[in-house]
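quick one
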Amino acid sequence: MNIMILLNIFLIAHLAGLALMAGTTVVETVTFNVFSKSLRNEGGPSLSLLNLMDKMGALLGIGAALLIISGTGMMIVTHGAFAHQIWFQIKLGLILTIILNGFLVGLRQMTKLKKSLDAGEKANDVIGNIKLFHLAQITIFFMIILLSIFKFS
Ligand code: HEM
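structure w/ protoporphyrin IX containing FE:
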């Protein structure tokens, strides 16, 4: 197959993964804000919103897998042409940060929130942490997109 066509196929998969992962992060942020407001106004947690946010984890995983597989595919097709460029190295660092932030901060804080709610506590600190976590993820996504498009060197 022509190399240009292969590169474009990977690029389409890459952008699909980006749309899925970044889109899900934004929707999760909005859902969490509605959830935290309902917690304040209605007194109890909305279980359906909690379930919905749990389901979003799978979409995030599919988006991340698409991004990583297609990104690796582009690296192979271009024989690692970008590997030594500074924008790409910073991009990889930011990708690692997004993944670590997701597992070490996001997942942990959500587990902590569920435990606090089960114990009947208010959990205001955890809610604040999760809002900051979402803001950080969206900011990092934005930085990765800027770097990938402008390819600063
Ligand atoms: C959060 C994860 C990621 C995001 C948001 C992201 C986003 C993007 C965007 C917006 C582009 C520009 C497409 C264009 O120029 O038309 C791009 C290009 C690229 N990405 Fe990613 N990417 C991610 C992960 C990865 C990973 C994990 C790799 C490699 C292992 C990778 C490798 C590449 C390469 C090689 C290009 C350049 C393609 C070209 O210009 O020919 N990306 N990425």
